[in-house]
Amino acid sequence: MTVLSDLLKALAAGQVPAQVPPDCEYKEEVGELIAYLAELAHYLRAMTEGDLAVPLARRGPLAGALKGLHANLRHLTWQTQQVAAGDFAQRVDFLGAFSTAFNSMVGALAQAREDLTNKNRELATAYEELKSAEAQLLQQEKMASIGQLAAGIAHEINNPMGFIQSNLGTLKNYGETLKTYFDATDQLAAQCPETVRVTLTQQRNDLDLEFLFEDLPTLISESVSGAKRVRDIVQALKSFSHVDEAEVQQINLNECIESTIATTENTLRAKATVVREYGELPAIECRPHLLSQLFLNLLLNAAHAIATQGEIRVTTRREGDFIIAAVSDTGCGIAPEIVGRIFEPFFTTKPVGQGTGLGLSVAYDIVKKHGGKIDVESTVGTGTTFTIRLPIKAVADQPISTS
Protein backbone atom coordinates (compact mmCIF):
# COMPACT_ATOMS: atom_id res chain seq x y z
CA MET A 1 0.00 0.00 0.00
CA THR A 2 3.00 2.27 0.36
CA VAL A 3 3.40 2.74 -3.38
CA LEU A 4 -0.30 3.44 -3.89
CA SER A 5 -0.35 5.87 -0.96
CA ASP A 6 2.60 7.81 -2.31
CA LEU A 7 1.08 7.87 -5.79
CA LEU A 8 -2.22 9.27 -4.50
CA LYS A 9 -0.38 11.97 -2.56
CA ALA A 10 1.50 12.92 -5.75
CA LEU A 11 -1.74 13.09 -7.70
CA ALA A 12 -3.32 15.28 -5.00
CA ALA A 13 -0.34 17.63 -5.31
CA GLY A 14 -0.87 17.89 -9.07
CA GLN A 15 2.00 15.63 -10.05
CA VAL A 16 0.76 13.19 -12.66
CA PRO A 17 3.36 10.51 -13.45
CA ALA A 18 3.90 9.42 -16.99
CA GLN A 19 3.20 5.77 -16.06
CA VAL A 20 2.08 3.62 -13.10
CA PRO A 21 4.89 2.01 -11.07
CA PRO A 22 5.02 -1.72 -11.83
CA ASP A 23 4.65 -2.71 -8.15
CA CYS A 24 1.62 -0.46 -7.53
CA GLU A 25 -1.56 -2.05 -6.17
CA TYR A 26 -4.61 -1.69 -8.41
CA LYS A 27 -2.33 -0.93 -11.29
CA GLU A 28 -5.03 -0.98 -13.99
CA GLU A 29 -7.45 1.33 -12.13
CA VAL A 30 -4.70 3.75 -11.20
CA GLY A 31 -3.49 3.80 -14.81
CA GLU A 32 -6.97 4.71 -16.00
CA LEU A 33 -7.12 7.53 -13.42
CA ILE A 34 -3.73 8.88 -14.51
CA ALA A 35 -4.79 8.84 -18.19
CA TYR A 36 -8.05 10.64 -17.29
CA LEU A 37 -6.27 13.34 -15.31
CA ALA A 38 -3.59 13.78 -18.01
CA GLU A 39 -6.21 14.34 -20.68
CA LEU A 40 -8.09 16.85 -18.50
CA ALA A 41 -4.83 18.67 -17.78
CA HIS A 42 -4.03 18.86 -21.53
CA TYR A 43 -7.54 20.14 -22.27
CA LEU A 44 -7.35 22.77 -19.53
CA ARG A 45 -3.86 23.87 -20.64
CA ALA A 46 -5.09 24.31 -24.22
CA MET A 47 -7.97 26.52 -23.03
CA THR A 48 -5.54 28.56 -20.92
CA GLU A 49 -3.39 29.16 -24.02
CA GLY A 50 -6.46 30.20 -26.06
CA ASP A 51 -6.75 27.05 -28.17
CA LEU A 52 -10.46 26.27 -28.06
CA ALA A 53 -10.33 23.71 -30.87
CA VAL A 54 -8.96 20.83 -28.73
CA PRO A 55 -11.66 18.13 -28.23
CA LEU A 56 -12.39 16.27 -24.99
CA ALA A 57 -13.82 12.75 -25.32
CA ARG A 58 -13.84 11.89 -21.60
CA ARG A 59 -17.05 11.88 -19.61
CA GLY A 60 -17.79 12.50 -15.99
CA PRO A 61 -18.62 15.45 -13.72
CA LEU A 62 -15.18 17.07 -13.95
CA ALA A 63 -14.98 16.62 -17.71
CA GLY A 64 -18.54 17.95 -18.05
CA ALA A 65 -17.67 21.06 -16.03
CA LEU A 66 -14.62 21.70 -18.22
CA LYS A 67 -16.69 21.22 -21.37
CA GLY A 68 -19.24 23.75 -20.06
CA LEU A 69 -16.45 26.26 -19.41
CA HIS A 70 -15.06 25.52 -22.87
CA ALA A 71 -18.46 26.20 -24.49
CA ASN A 72 -18.83 29.48 -22.59
CA LEU A 73 -15.36 30.61 -23.65
CA ARG A 74 -16.09 29.80 -27.31
CA HIS A 75 -19.38 31.77 -27.14
CA LEU A 76 -17.62 34.66 -25.41
CA THR A 77 -14.98 34.68 -28.16
CA TRP A 78 -17.70 34.86 -30.83
CA GLN A 79 -19.47 37.68 -28.97
CA THR A 80 -16.21 39.61 -28.71
CA GLN A 81 -15.75 39.26 -32.48
CA GLN A 82 -19.28 40.56 -33.01
CA VAL A 83 -18.57 43.59 -30.82
CA ALA A 84 -15.37 44.22 -32.80
CA ALA A 85 -17.49 44.17 -35.98
CA GLY A 86 -19.80 46.85 -34.54
CA ASP A 87 -22.59 44.79 -32.96
CA PHE A 88 -22.94 46.45 -29.55
CA ALA A 89 -26.12 44.53 -28.68
CA GLN A 90 -24.11 41.54 -27.38
CA ARG A 91 -24.52 40.70 -23.67
CA VAL A 92 -22.94 38.03 -21.41
CA ASP A 93 -24.96 36.44 -18.58
CA PHE A 94 -23.07 33.27 -17.64
CA LEU A 95 -19.80 34.39 -16.03
CA GLY A 96 -20.93 36.35 -12.97
CA ALA A 97 -18.83 39.46 -12.25
CA PHE A 98 -17.01 39.05 -15.54
CA SER A 99 -20.37 39.27 -17.34
CA THR A 100 -21.13 42.55 -15.59
CA ALA A 101 -17.73 43.98 -16.56
CA PHE A 102 -18.04 42.77 -20.15
CA ASN A 103 -21.53 44.17 -20.57
CA SER A 104 -20.42 47.48 -19.07
CA MET A 105 -17.51 47.64 -21.50
CA VAL A 106 -19.77 46.93 -24.49
CA GLY A 107 -22.23 49.61 -23.36
CA ALA A 108 -19.40 52.13 -23.01
CA LEU A 109 -18.13 51.26 -26.51
CA ALA A 110 -21.63 51.67 -27.94
CA GLN A 111 -22.00 55.07 -26.27
CA ALA A 112 -18.55 56.13 -27.50
CA ARG A 113 -19.43 55.15 -31.06
CA GLU A 114 -22.72 57.08 -30.86
CA ASP A 115 -20.91 60.14 -29.50
CA LEU A 116 -18.30 59.90 -32.28
CA THR A 117 -21.02 59.53 -34.93
CA ASN A 118 -22.81 62.61 -33.60
CA LYS A 119 -19.58 64.60 -33.57
CA ASN A 120 -18.82 63.57 -37.15
CA ARG A 121 -22.34 64.57 -38.16
CA GLU A 122 -21.93 67.95 -36.48
CA LEU A 123 -18.56 68.45 -38.19
CA ALA A 124 -20.05 67.52 -41.57
CA THR A 125 -22.92 69.98 -41.03
CA ALA A 126 -20.52 72.72 -39.96
CA TYR A 127 -18.34 72.04 -43.01
CA GLU A 128 -21.33 72.25 -45.37
CA GLU A 129 -22.47 75.50 -43.72
CA LEU A 130 -18.95 76.91 -44.08
CA LYS A 131 -18.84 75.94 -47.74
CA SER A 132 -22.27 77.48 -48.30
CA ALA A 133 -21.29 80.71 -46.52
CA GLU A 134 -18.07 80.90 -48.53
CA ALA A 135 -19.91 80.36 -51.82
CA GLN A 136 -22.52 82.99 -50.90
CA LEU A 137 -19.81 85.53 -50.05
CA LEU A 138 -17.98 84.88 -53.30
CA GLN A 139 -21.23 85.14 -55.22
CA GLN A 140 -22.19 88.45 -53.58
CA GLU A 141 -18.80 89.99 -54.33
CA LYS A 142 -18.83 88.77 -57.90
CA MET A 143 -22.42 89.84 -58.48
CA ALA A 144 -21.72 93.29 -57.07
CA SER A 145 -18.65 93.74 -59.29
CA ILE A 146 -20.38 92.49 -62.43
CA GLY A 147 -23.49 94.55 -61.66
CA GLN A 148 -21.50 97.76 -61.23
CA LEU A 149 -19.54 97.04 -64.40
CA ALA A 150 -22.70 96.26 -66.38
CA ALA A 151 -24.49 99.36 -65.07
CA GLY A 152 -21.51 101.57 -65.94
CA ILE A 153 -21.18 100.14 -69.45
CA ALA A 154 -24.91 100.44 -70.07
CA HIS A 155 -24.92 104.07 -68.97
CA GLU A 156 -21.87 105.00 -71.06
CA ILE A 157 -23.23 103.32 -74.19
CA ASN A 158 -26.84 104.40 -73.80
CA ASN A 159 -26.29 108.15 -74.17
CA PRO A 160 -24.26 108.15 -77.43
CA MET A 161 -26.51 105.45 -78.87
CA GLY A 162 -29.47 107.78 -78.31
CA PHE A 163 -27.72 110.43 -80.42
CA ILE A 164 -26.84 107.89 -83.12
CA GLN A 165 -30.39 106.56 -83.42
CA SER A 166 -31.84 110.06 -83.54
CA ASN A 167 -29.30 111.20 -86.15
CA LEU A 168 -29.92 108.14 -88.31
CA GLY A 169 -33.61 108.97 -88.39
CA THR A 170 -32.82 112.54 -89.39
CA LEU A 171 -30.31 111.33 -92.00
CA LYS A 172 -32.98 109.11 -93.55
CA ASN A 173 -35.29 112.11 -93.88
CA TYR A 174 -32.46 114.17 -95.41
CA GLY A 175 -31.81 111.45 -97.96
CA GLU A 176 -35.49 111.34 -98.97
CA THR A 177 -35.50 115.16 -99.26
CA LEU A 178 -32.42 115.12 -101.50
CA LYS A 179 -33.93 112.40 -103.67
CA THR A 180 -37.07 114.49 -104.09
CA TYR A 181 -34.93 117.51 -105.00
CA PHE A 182 -32.88 115.66 -107.62
CA ASP A 183 -36.02 114.16 -109.15
CA ALA A 184 -37.33 117.71 -109.55
CA THR A 185 -34.06 118.89 -111.15
CA ASP A 186 -34.29 116.04 -113.64
CA GLN A 187 -37.66 117.33 -114.77
CA LEU A 188 -36.36 120.91 -115.07
CA ALA A 189 -33.22 119.73 -116.91
CA ALA A 190 -35.41 118.40 -119.68
CA GLN A 191 -36.40 122.02 -120.49
CA CYS A 192 -32.78 123.29 -120.57
CA PRO A 193 -30.60 123.64 -123.69
CA GLU A 194 -28.84 120.52 -124.94
CA THR A 195 -25.41 121.62 -123.69
CA VAL A 196 -26.78 122.13 -120.15
CA ARG A 197 -28.51 118.72 -120.17
CA VAL A 198 -25.33 117.01 -121.31
CA THR A 199 -23.28 118.73 -118.63
CA LEU A 200 -25.79 117.81 -115.87
CA THR A 201 -25.98 114.21 -117.08
CA GLN A 202 -22.20 113.94 -117.21
CA GLN A 203 -21.90 115.38 -113.69
CA ARG A 204 -24.60 112.97 -112.44
CA ASN A 205 -22.75 109.98 -113.94
CA ASP A 206 -19.36 111.12 -112.60
CA LEU A 207 -20.76 111.42 -109.06
CA ASP A 208 -22.59 108.06 -109.44
CA LEU A 209 -25.73 109.62 -107.96
CA GLU A 210 -27.93 106.73 -109.08
CA PHE A 211 -25.93 104.29 -106.95
CA LEU A 212 -25.78 106.79 -104.08
CA PHE A 213 -29.58 107.16 -103.94
CA GLU A 214 -29.98 103.39 -104.28
CA ASP A 215 -27.41 102.47 -101.60
CA LEU A 216 -28.13 105.22 -99.07
CA PRO A 217 -31.44 103.72 -97.77
CA THR A 218 -29.72 100.32 -97.38
CA LEU A 219 -26.84 101.82 -95.40
CA ILE A 220 -29.21 103.73 -93.15
CA SER A 221 -31.40 100.66 -92.63
CA GLU A 222 -28.39 98.50 -91.68
CA SER A 223 -27.14 101.21 -89.32
CA VAL A 224 -30.56 101.49 -87.68
CA SER A 225 -30.65 97.71 -87.28
CA GLY A 226 -27.17 97.74 -85.72
CA ALA A 227 -28.13 100.59 -83.41
CA LYS A 228 -31.24 98.67 -82.37
CA ARG A 229 -29.08 95.65 -81.59
CA VAL A 230 -26.79 97.79 -79.44
CA ARG A 231 -29.85 99.22 -77.70
CA ASP A 232 -31.11 95.68 -76.97
CA ILE A 233 -27.73 94.73 -75.52
CA VAL A 234 -27.71 97.86 -73.36
CA GLN A 235 -31.19 97.05 -72.15
CA ALA A 236 -30.05 93.53 -71.30
CA LEU A 237 -27.07 94.94 -69.41
CA LYS A 238 -29.34 97.28 -67.47
CA SER A 239 -31.61 94.40 -66.60
CA PHE A 240 -28.63 92.24 -65.65
CA SER A 241 -27.14 94.94 -63.40
CA HIS A 242 -30.11 95.15 -61.03
CA VAL A 243 -28.13 93.59 -58.16
CA ASP A 244 -30.20 95.47 -55.58
CA GLU A 245 -33.42 93.68 -56.49
CA ALA A 246 -33.93 91.77 -53.22
CA GLU A 247 -37.61 91.00 -53.77
CA VAL A 248 -38.84 87.89 -55.50
CA GLN A 249 -40.28 88.76 -58.90
CA GLN A 250 -42.28 86.93 -61.53
CA ILE A 251 -40.51 86.64 -64.88
CA ASN A 252 -40.58 84.51 -67.99
CA LEU A 253 -37.51 82.30 -67.89
CA ASN A 254 -37.22 82.26 -71.69
CA GLU A 255 -36.89 86.06 -71.73
CA CYS A 256 -34.34 85.91 -68.92
CA ILE A 257 -32.22 83.39 -70.86
CA GLU A 258 -32.54 85.36 -74.09
CA SER A 259 -31.44 88.55 -72.32
CA THR A 260 -28.41 86.72 -70.92
CA ILE A 261 -27.50 85.33 -74.35
CA ALA A 262 -27.64 88.86 -75.77
CA THR A 263 -25.06 90.09 -73.23
CA THR A 264 -22.53 87.49 -74.27
CA GLU A 265 -23.46 86.73 -77.88
CA ASN A 266 -20.10 87.84 -79.28
CA THR A 267 -18.25 85.36 -77.08
CA LEU A 268 -20.71 82.58 -77.91
CA ARG A 269 -20.71 83.32 -81.65
CA ALA A 270 -16.93 82.93 -81.78
CA LYS A 271 -17.21 79.36 -80.48
CA ALA A 272 -20.63 77.97 -81.30
CA THR A 273 -24.04 78.27 -82.87
CA VAL A 274 -26.66 78.85 -80.19
CA VAL A 275 -29.77 76.72 -80.78
CA ARG A 276 -32.86 77.72 -78.81
CA GLU A 277 -35.64 75.26 -78.04
CA TYR A 278 -37.96 77.21 -75.76
CA GLY A 279 -41.12 75.61 -74.45
CA GLU A 280 -44.22 77.49 -73.37
CA LEU A 281 -43.60 78.53 -69.78
CA PRO A 282 -45.59 80.21 -67.02
CA ALA A 283 -44.05 83.06 -65.03
CA ILE A 284 -41.60 81.85 -62.40
CA GLU A 285 -41.03 83.42 -58.96
CA CYS A 286 -37.32 84.11 -58.61
CA ARG A 287 -34.49 86.62 -58.29
CA PRO A 288 -34.03 87.61 -61.96
CA HIS A 289 -30.45 88.85 -61.55
CA LEU A 290 -29.43 85.57 -59.89
CA LEU A 291 -30.90 83.49 -62.71
CA SER A 292 -29.14 85.76 -65.24
CA GLN A 293 -25.88 85.01 -63.41
CA LEU A 294 -26.72 81.29 -63.41
CA PHE A 295 -27.26 81.03 -67.16
CA LEU A 296 -24.37 83.39 -67.93
CA ASN A 297 -22.02 81.04 -66.06
CA LEU A 298 -23.41 77.95 -67.80
CA LEU A 299 -23.25 79.53 -71.27
CA LEU A 300 -19.69 80.76 -70.80
CA ASN A 301 -18.69 77.37 -69.39
CA ALA A 302 -20.18 75.71 -72.49
CA ALA A 303 -18.30 78.10 -74.80
CA HIS A 304 -15.00 77.48 -73.00
CA ALA A 305 -15.49 73.70 -73.38
CA ILE A 306 -15.59 74.01 -77.19
CA ALA A 307 -12.14 74.09 -78.79
CA THR A 308 -12.96 75.48 -82.25
CA GLN A 309 -16.57 75.59 -83.41
CA GLY A 310 -19.54 73.68 -82.08
CA GLU A 311 -23.10 73.97 -80.87
CA ILE A 312 -24.71 75.19 -77.66
CA ARG A 313 -28.31 74.10 -77.24
CA VAL A 314 -30.66 75.74 -74.71
CA THR A 315 -33.96 73.99 -74.03
CA THR A 316 -36.81 74.80 -71.63
CA ARG A 317 -40.03 72.99 -70.72
CA ARG A 318 -42.53 72.67 -67.92
CA GLU A 319 -42.92 69.56 -65.77
CA GLY A 320 -45.77 69.89 -63.28
CA ASP A 321 -44.88 72.57 -60.73
CA PHE A 322 -41.33 72.86 -62.04
CA ILE A 323 -39.53 74.39 -64.99
CA ILE A 324 -36.72 72.38 -66.57
CA ALA A 325 -33.93 74.22 -68.38
CA ALA A 326 -30.94 72.52 -70.00
CA VAL A 327 -27.73 73.91 -71.48
CA SER A 328 -25.85 71.43 -73.70
CA ASP A 329 -22.57 71.79 -75.57
CA THR A 330 -20.57 69.72 -78.04
CA GLY A 331 -17.33 70.41 -76.20
CA CYS A 332 -14.58 68.27 -74.73
CA GLY A 333 -16.70 66.77 -71.95
CA ILE A 334 -15.74 66.12 -68.32
CA ALA A 335 -13.72 63.11 -67.12
CA PRO A 336 -15.77 60.78 -64.85
CA GLU A 337 -13.26 61.02 -62.01
CA ILE A 338 -13.77 64.79 -61.63
CA VAL A 339 -17.50 65.14 -62.36
CA GLY A 340 -18.22 64.98 -58.65
CA ARG A 341 -15.91 67.94 -57.96
CA ILE A 342 -16.96 70.47 -60.58
CA PHE A 343 -19.27 72.35 -58.18
CA GLU A 344 -16.53 72.77 -55.56
CA PRO A 345 -15.36 76.38 -55.07
CA PHE A 346 -12.00 77.07 -56.76
CA PHE A 347 -11.93 73.69 -58.55
CA THR A 348 -11.03 74.16 -62.22
CA THR A 349 -9.45 72.12 -64.99
CA LYS A 350 -8.26 75.23 -66.81
CA PRO A 351 -4.59 76.27 -66.81
CA VAL A 352 -3.38 78.60 -64.07
CA GLY A 353 -4.56 82.14 -64.72
CA GLN A 354 -7.40 81.13 -67.05
CA GLY A 355 -10.11 80.28 -64.54
CA THR A 356 -11.13 81.02 -60.98
CA GLY A 357 -13.10 77.81 -60.40
CA LEU A 358 -16.10 79.82 -59.15
CA GLY A 359 -18.50 79.77 -62.10
CA LEU A 360 -20.14 76.39 -61.49
CA SER A 361 -19.92 76.79 -57.72
CA VAL A 362 -21.92 80.03 -57.99
CA ALA A 363 -24.38 78.34 -60.39
CA TYR A 364 -24.92 75.48 -57.94
CA ASP A 365 -25.51 77.91 -55.07
CA ILE A 366 -28.04 79.97 -57.07
CA VAL A 367 -30.04 76.85 -57.95
CA LYS A 368 -29.94 75.76 -54.30
CA LYS A 369 -31.16 79.21 -53.16
CA HIS A 370 -34.19 78.83 -55.43
CA GLY A 371 -35.02 75.41 -53.97
CA GLY A 372 -34.04 73.72 -57.22
CA LYS A 373 -31.67 71.04 -58.41
CA ILE A 374 -28.84 70.95 -60.96
CA ASP A 375 -27.55 67.75 -62.61
CA VAL A 376 -24.74 67.14 -65.06
CA GLU A 377 -24.28 64.46 -67.71
CA SER A 378 -21.04 64.39 -69.64
CA THR A 379 -19.14 62.19 -72.08
CA VAL A 380 -15.48 62.88 -72.81
CA GLY A 381 -15.08 63.96 -76.43
CA THR A 382 -18.84 64.31 -76.98
CA GLY A 383 -20.11 67.10 -74.74
CA THR A 384 -21.87 68.06 -71.52
CA THR A 385 -25.44 68.84 -70.48
CA PHE A 386 -26.38 70.79 -67.35
CA THR A 387 -30.04 70.33 -66.40
CA ILE A 388 -31.66 72.78 -63.97
CA ARG A 389 -34.95 72.05 -62.18
CA LEU A 390 -36.60 75.15 -60.64
CA PRO A 391 -39.93 75.41 -58.79
CA ILE A 392 -42.45 77.76 -60.39
CA LYS A 393 -43.46 79.08 -56.97
CA ALA A 394 -40.78 80.35 -54.59
CA VAL A 395 -40.08 77.72 -51.92
CA ALA A 396 -41.47 79.00 -48.61
CA ASP A 397 -39.17 77.03 -46.32
CA GLN A 398 -36.08 77.96 -48.33
CA PRO A 399 -36.27 81.74 -48.66
CA ILE A 400 -33.98 83.22 -51.27
CA SER A 401 -31.56 85.46 -49.46
CA THR A 402 -28.87 87.82 -50.65
CA SER A 403 -27.30 88.12 -47.23
Shape: rod-shaped
Q: How many β-strand runs?
A: 7
What is the arithmetic mean of pLDDT?
A: 79
What name is given to the CATH topology of the domain at 245-403? Heat Shock Protein 90
What profile does the largest beta sheet have?
A: 5 strands, mixed
What is the CATH C level class of the domain at 245-403, in words? Alpha Beta
First-residue to last-residue Cα separation: 104 Å
Main structural class = alpha+beta
Task: Map the helices and strands.
Blueprint (H helix, E strand, L loop, with lengths): L1 H11 L14 H22 L12 H24 L12 H93 L4 H13 L2 H32 L8 E3 L1 H11 L1 H7 E6 L6 E3 L1 H18 L4 E10 L2 E8 L6 H4 L19 H11 L3 E7 L3 E9 L12
Parallel strand pairs: 2-4
Antiparallel strand pairs: 1-3, 4-5, 5-7, 6-7
Helix pairs in contact: 2-3, 4-6, 6-7, 7-9, 9-11
List the main descriptive attributes of the protein structure presented here.
single chain; 403 residues; alpha+beta; Heat Shock Protein 90; 5-stranded mixed β-sheet; two-stranded antiparallel ribbon; 11 helices; 61% helix; 11% strand; rod-shaped
Give an account of the 3D structure.
The protein is α+β, with helices and mostly antiparallel strands and 403 residues long. 61% of the residues lie in helices and 11% in strands. It is built from 11 helices and 7 strands. Helix 2 (27-48) packs parallel to helix 3, helix 6 crosses helix 7 and helix 7 (253-263) crosses helix 9. The radius of gyration is 46 Å and the shape is rod-shaped.
In short:
The protein is an alpha+beta fold and 403 residues long.
